[in-house]
Amino acid sequence: YKTIKNIDFAWRDITGFTLNVLWKNLCPQFVHDFRGFGKVDEESQEVFSNLVTLSKKMELDLQVDAVTELLAVQHEELTNEDLMELEAQRKAEESQEEEEVTEEPKRFTTQEMKGDFLYLR
Question: Which parts of this chain are annotated as the region Disordered (predicted)?
């Protein structure tokens, strides 16, 4: 029982990056080298170029370097502080959207309604 607990405890510390390093020798075609993107194959380069082309059609400013940099950062684990900051940003955006959506309902006076109904006759 204690052995299983020890294995469980040790397994929790293994990151995705560590697994990539370990599996790289066994199945290199399935392991991606995200560290710095030193090896970007032709297919990936084509995908990045397509993303840039689509972003230009949508009038967004996106460069291939920005795509590779974004993907390079994705392998890093977020700290608790990062997660708390992201949650705070999400809540702030939600509350801002709720404020924008909430519009004052139109109010009609009886005089306005009377005038409008006269035109319906």
Answer: 88-107
Angle at 67 between CA 66 and CA 68, to 5 degrees: 95
Torsion sign (Cα): 106, 112, 115, 118: positive
116 alpha-carbon distance from chain centroid? 50
First to last CA, the chain: 87
Cβ neighbors of 39 (< 8 A, separation 6 or more) are 33
Residue 37, sorted as left (phi over 0), alpha (psi -120 to 50) or beta, turns out to be left
Reading the block at residue 5, the tokens are: 């607990």
82: its two tokens:
């990062």
In the predicted model, is pLDDT for residue 25 greater than 80? no
C-beta pairs of 105-108 under 8 Å, 24+ apart in sequence: none
Q: What are phi and psi of 76, to 5 degrees?
A: -75, 140
Q: What's the mean pLDDT when you consider all of the chain?
A: 74
